[in-house]
Amino acid sequence: MRHSIVSFILMLLFSVSGDLYAADDFRERIYVQTDKQVYLAGELLWLKLCVTDATGIPVSFSKVGYVELLDESTALVQAKIEIKEGIGEGWLELPALLPTGYYRLVAYTRYMRNEGDAVFFRKTIGVVNTFRKDETIPTDTLIKATSPDISGNTLQLATDKTSFSRREQGSIRIQGLPADVHTLGISIAGNEFIPVPGDPSISQWQAALSAQDQAALTDDYLPEYEGHLIRGKIVNVRTGEALAQTGVSPLLGFVGDEIRLFGGQLQDDKASVLFYTSRITGTHELATTANSKGTEVYRIDIQSPFALHPALEMPRFKMNPAWDEGLTRRNIGLQVTRTFTADSLGHVEPVHAHFQWRPYKTYLLDEYTRFPTMGEAVFEFVESVSFRNTNGKRSLFVLLEDLSNQTVSLNRPLVLLDGIPITDHELIYNYNPALIRRLEVYRNRYGFGGQVFEGILAFYTYKNDYPTLKVGASTQLFDYKGTQHHRLFYAPAYPDELSRKSRMPDYRHTLLWMPNVQTGGSPALTLPFYTSDLPGEYTVTVEGITKDGKTIRGIVCFQVIE
Fold first, then answer.
1. What DSSP element (H or E) covers 438?
2. CA–CA distance, 277 with 263 (Å, rounded to integer)
3. Nearest Cα residue to 44 out of 334, 336, 329, 340
4. What radius of gyration do the chain's Cα atoms show?
């Protein structure tokens, strides 16, 4: 059954896009470009994802990418990256306590997990912790630092000068660009004197694709072709066992000041559920509810969307006293930058409303008499809503409207308190109305993941923190990280003498990060940048790919003098 679903999705998507793939054998690959390869603990690692098929031709299929930074056996940093038209932009915030050493940067999509860990993207990242002096790090004297390799350049790349002063404007000139560029990423970062084993360019990565073993393609993981899939296990509260169930209606709600609800789809084993979500950027408090028709009580345990990785021995790392001066300068720069530019570093774009329907009526309870219970308040002044008593238990109902505004049905509605699905309406009846700021009444029929509700009653408290609410064992509350918000790269400009003399320090080691430059089909581009207060040698790296899978690469270096 699952195999048929995956094949149907693939055939539908590729027939619409005009791409001719064998649906049963489509395979996905991912390439990651980073702003550099060596970081200080506490720095931001900027990254870009590019999704292709197994031959390296760009595709737009999965909508979420997974990126992890691992030591030899453990994931230390994880992120979900939204992918649009095959391109994802994001970052990893390296923990300040991350020990000095080499780490694995791993990236993949959910669909790639059907082939296993062997096809995931991997890159070695070096991290130096300037706050910790760890002499136990093993030595490997065979790793040598190398200069940037310009032998694989496929375009003409130059800066307007080879040497710049601090806070000076420069420009990058790119010539020889193909007309059909799919994506182009540009970074300028200080050269590393610390050796890092292996730094595959996009050309080397693509060339290695043909050498990968074509493992059997399973259908264990449905592709995230619309948005993030959240998977949960249905667990019997009494026994603690995950058992197959057909009489459970799973719901996932977002706690907050608006309606965000997803109905779950039971999977083939009937013991797991998938929530097909969309636009869940940032960290949210979620509520899961498993409404059972029988006497047993069930809960939903959310599963991690990240893969398990086999242990892998990493190259050895030992600090060299010759690096102390440069690292000290970068360490001071990192602390100063984060202190003076915290607002800029943390800027994210705002999100928009998710529930598009308007309520039939909104009640602001401050405008009404306060009664001892919410049940009495509903009875006294809420139009078209009431409680009814069935077998000694109260339940809410809403008088629905048809297209001619006539009431036509009395059925169980969806009831939410600060976004939490409430299946036991006694909780609402006895809730203190003094804690409720507003009530929204929706008098139509709404469907969420195959579950249909006859109207919606959405109660909201003043701070959306559901005070005094005691949910049953079938409801669980937890924090969940969705895909990352878009984050702005901090790059100050110094257009005049006054700004160049500013006392605001600027110790950026990465001067420019533009992960997805739009070329508009032009064969040449000129892009400006500004140097910082940090002297040394810098490398401009340009990487990209055309719509038919031809790789683009260029590297050039320049100096920033004292």
1. strand 436-448
2. 9
3. 334
4. 28
For residue 417, which of 447, 461, 455 has the smallest C-alpha distance? Answer: 461
Cβ contact 490:338 at 8 Å:
no
Long-range contacts of 367-375 (CB under 8 A, 24+ apart): 370/433, 370/434, 371/433, 373/429, 373/430, 373/431, 373/432, 373/433, 374/428, 374/429, 374/430, 374/431, 374/432, 374/433, 374/436, 374/459, 375/428, 375/429, 375/430
Question: Which of the 8 DSSP states describes residue 295?
Answer: S
Two structure tokens written together for 164: 């710049």
Given a contact cutoff of 8 angstroms between Cβ atoms, the answer to whether 334 and 342 are in contact is no
Instruction: Please report where in the chains the tokens 């667990």 appear, as a residue.
Output: 235
Token couple for 393: 């238990």
Quote the DSSP letter at residue 381: H
Per DSSP, the chain holds a count of helices (H) and strands (E) of 7, 31
Going 354 to 385 to 361 to 428, the CA torsion angle's sign is: negative
What is d(CA 283, CA 446) in angstroms, rounded to the nearest whole number? 26
Dump the DSSP string for 149-173: --TT--SEEEES-SEE-TT-EEEEE
Outline where 219-287 has alpha helix (H).
none
Cβ atoms within 10 Å, residue 3: 12
CA distance 410 to 212: 60
pLDDT 10s digits, 393-431: 899 999 887 644 555 455 689 999 999 999 999 999 999
CA distances from 199 to 104, 142, 504, 507 (A): 12, 16, 35, 25
- pLDDT for 149 equals 65
- Kindly provide the residue ranges of all beta strands, DSSP E only, lying in 16-99, ordered along the sequence: 28-34, 38-40, 44-53, 64-70, 75-84, 87-93
Instruction: Report the sign of the C-alpha dihedral through residues 318, 321, 325, 328, in that order.
Output: positive
Which pTM value belongs to this model?
0.90
- Tally Cβ neighbours within 10 Å of residue 205: 22
Q: What are the distances in angstroms from CA 35 to CA 81, 160, 327? A: 16, 21, 18
Residue carrying structure tokens 């790919």: 545
If you ran DSSP here, which 8-state letter would residue 484 be given?
P
Cross-strand bridge partners of residue 275:
230, 264
| Residue type at 299 in one-letter notation | R
E strand segments, 267-384: 272-276, 283-292, 298-302, 361-364
Distance CA 76, CA 41 (A): 12
Looking at the DSSP bridge assignments, the partners of residue 90 are 47
CB 461 within 8 A of CB 469: no
pLDDT in tens, 518-553: 999 999 999 999 999 999 999 999 999 999 999 999
Percentage of the chain beyond pLDDT 90 is 67
Q: Are the CB atoms for 486 and 164 separated by under 8 Å?
A: no
Residue at 67: amino acid letter: V
In this predicted structure, which of 56-60, 254-258, 352-356, 432-436 has the lowest mean pLDDT? 352-356
Alpha carbon distance 538, 511 (integer Å): 9
